[in-house]
Amino acid sequence: MSRTALTDGSVRYSPNLAHRSKRKISAGQYLVPLGVCGSVGLASAHRLGAGAALPIAGVTAVITLLVVLLWRLTLPRAMSVTVTASDITYRRYGRKDTVRRDASTRSAARMLVLNTGVRAPYLVVAGDSGNFLLNTDMWADDDLLDIAAAIPEANQDPDIAVVDAKQMETEFPGVLPAYTAHPNRTALLTLAALIPITVAGMWLLGTLTDDSDDLGNDSDDTSQSTVRGELTDAEARRQNRLQDQVQDVVAPDRTWSDGGARLGECGEGAWQRLLEWSTQSTDTLLDARMNAAVDDLATQAGMVATMDQTSATVHTLAFQDDDTGAFLRVQGDGQTATVTTGSACVEPR
């Protein structure tokens, strides 16, 4: 028994923690972490590859299982029933239900059979002012008898009736939580809510792991992450940004094709990441206005012009940062434009 006599003459009852600890964890409590880790694992596999899916899913499962276990341990300590001269109050996790002790107050023992076939024994306390139920597996028998004794004897129903959720709701409207009273409807609503949450999580995961810094041209994240090596994030973002800005100046309304990221040499043992994108257009490319805009972008990136010439029908602009080795090259022949950038050089260790 776990009861406390209060100074105002009322009595507060708490769940039997020893009894609670012996209850088996239901299958549903195992399915919660499995469902969560499965969803996170699939999202991780999609964005990060199969190699990252298993560790992330495992960590997620452990964290979720710990949350479930914490809930099982803290729930009994958050629950209590207080019987006063005028009412019976049930508290748990910030929620409070109060039933007045009057001629309408009644108690009933019910065995609730869930859709999964699991049976849960309850003591229902109800009246005109409201109702609540206590899972009798969590409370000492003597405490339950004392709580029931606070109700007029004529309104006590000690015979255990086996009912399903629909019958329980019909007899005691609102006594069951929505997920128990309407499991199918709750499952559909939960699924409808999880879909956008999962999509948003995948998008966020992709955003946090996207090395292309919004290059905006369907770049191959895998190839870029492979060639980056020891290149710093700041230098990579700087290169990506310049590539994107120059493409927008040269042909803002055209579709650019990715020539692929690759490694280039820029000194004895040093290397840099190279990006090359091309687009086809019948417009006259690299006119004076475009040249000036490209020159401005290169200057902002700390580069100086190293070439501005026309050979046959090909016009080439080239810029370089002598301190870092980063460069920009733009070529246009009136039909095709190509923008190539090199990142800052990475010196060998």
Q: What would you say this structure looks like, in words?
A:
The protein has 349 residues and is an alpha+beta fold. The protein contains ten helices and 16 strands. The strands form three sheets. Strands 10, 11, 12, 13, 14, 15 and 16 form a seven-stranded antiparallel β-sheet that branches. A five-stranded antiparallel β-sheet has the order 1-2-3-4-5, with no helix packed on it. A four-stranded mixed β-sheet has the order 8-7-6-9. It starts with a strand and ends in a 7-residue tail after the last strand. Residues 211-229 have low confidence and may be disordered.
What's the Cα radius of gyration? 35 Å
Number of strands: 16
Report how far apart the termini are: 70 Å
Q: Structural class, from helix and strand content?
A: alpha+beta
Regions with little confidence, pLDDT below 50 for 5+ residues: 211-229
β-sheet strand percentage? 25-35%
Average predicted local confidence, pLDDT: 80
Number of helices: 10
Shape: rod-shaped
Sheet having the most strands: 7 strands, antiparallel
Which range best describes the helical content: under 10%, 10-25%, 25-40%, 40-55%, 55-70% or over 70%?
Answer: 25-40%
SSE pattern: EEHHHEEEEEEHEHHHHHEEEHEEEE
